[in-house]
Amino acid sequence: MILFQGFRISPRRQHTALLWGVAGAVVLRALFIAAGITLFRRFAWITWIFGLILLYAAWRLLRAARQTRNSRVDS
After folding, report:
1. pTM over 0.70, yes/no
2. Is the Cβ–Cβ distance between 40 and 46 less than 8 Å?
3. Residue % of the chain over a pLDDT of 70
4. 4, 17 in Cβ contact below 8 A?
5. Separation of first and last alpha carbons in the chain
6. DSSP helix/strand/coil, 1
7. What's the gap between Cα 2 and its chain centre?
8. Which of 28, 3, 33 is nearest to 18 (CA)?
9. To bridge 4 with a disulfide, which of 9, 39, 72, 73 should be the other Cys (CB 3.0-4.6 Å)?
10. Structure confidence by residue, pLDDT tens digits, 1-30
11. In which region does residue 43 sit, left (phi positive, over 0), alpha (psi from -120 to 50) or beta (all else)?
12. Residue 27 and residue 42: Cα distance in Å, rounded?
């Protein structure tokens, strides 16, 4: 609702705007999935890079969770 008000979309057209937004998100997601599959098939080594990115993200999440847990114990 706030987004619609910010762009001054009339209540009559909000359904259409939401429909186009969701459809666009689905189409873009499908395109990115197809591009990712193509990259994985064409360049097998890219799997290692994405694996390293996932490991780094997991490490950051675990580190943040540990810091949050330690700060709760201290207070």
Report:
1. no
2. yes
3. 95
4. yes
5. 39
6. coil
7. 21
8. 3
9. 9
10. 788 888 888 889 999 999 999 999 999 999
11. beta
12. 22
